[in-house]
Amino acid sequence: MQSSLIHMGHRLKQILKQKKIKIVDFATMAGFTNQIAHYHLRKSDMKRATMERFCTLIGITPEEFMRWNGAMQLTNGKVIHHGERLQHIIAEKGLNKSKLAGRLNMSRRTMYNLFEKSTFSPDELDRVAKGLDMNVDNFLNPGVVQEARQTDSEEMMILREKYYKLLEEHNLVLKTNAALKDEIFQLKKDLTTVARKKND
Q1: What sign has the CA pseudo-torsion 159, 161, 162, 163?
Q2: Structural domain of residue 189, as residue ranges?
Q3: What CA–CA distances, in Å, run from 116 to 91, 109, 110, 157, 181?
Q4: Do residues 66 and 3 make contact, with C-beta atoms less than 8 angstroms apart?
Q5: How many domains does the chain have?
Q6: 184: burial class by Cβ within 10 Å (0-12, 13-18, 19+)?
Q7: How far is CA 148 from the centre of its chain?
Q8: Which CATH number is 62's domain given?
């Protein structure tokens, strides 16, 4: 089955980003919490019925979901040409084409052939993104990088809050432990004193 080749959660996240649907809004549309939405975005597999339901909610067909590779792009209706996008990034970053071809593990001729391609295969997308030191989402979505960073920062804030809470609990446990040690030490001293008095 084709879904076994696709990380379904990542695919769903990619589509939501490209369609400018925030995860919190998607959760509301689907009738579940933000946490459940994130759970679905992390899962590598998905039941066909669930995928079909999500497709209906975001306005695409299951076939589009399975074939989605970022070519269906941008709010102004313009489709991203993968080869042109690659050339644009090379120019923007001022990259040496020979060195980049080496990083992509391909000849300059093969890399130049990529410039002509309107849609890269998943393998080509991965290789190109890695060679450019970026992820596939950023390659396909020049307009949503900021939004992705914002989502990441929200997740970081939640993690930070959890960390501080655990740190407080940890410090409380350490204080309690220290107090108990002091108490035990004092009891031992008292017992020693009582024992001495008995012996005297």
Answers
A1: positive
A2: 144-200
A3: 16, 11, 10, 42, 73
A4: yes
A5: 3
A6: exposed
A7: 9
A8: 1.10.260.40
pTM for this prediction: 0.37
Residues in the chain: 200
* Tens-binned pLDDT, residue by residue, of the chain (200 aa): 344 467 889 889 888 888 888 999 999 999 999 999 999 999 988 899 999 999 889 888 888 788 776 544 443 445 678 888 898 888 888 889 889 999 888 899 999 999 888 778 777 888 898 888 888 877 877 654 444 444 455 667 777 778 778 878 888 888 898 889 989 999 999 899 888 888 77
Q: How many CB atoms lie within 10 A of CB 119?
A: 14
Same domain, 5 and 63: yes
d(CA 22, CA 20): 6
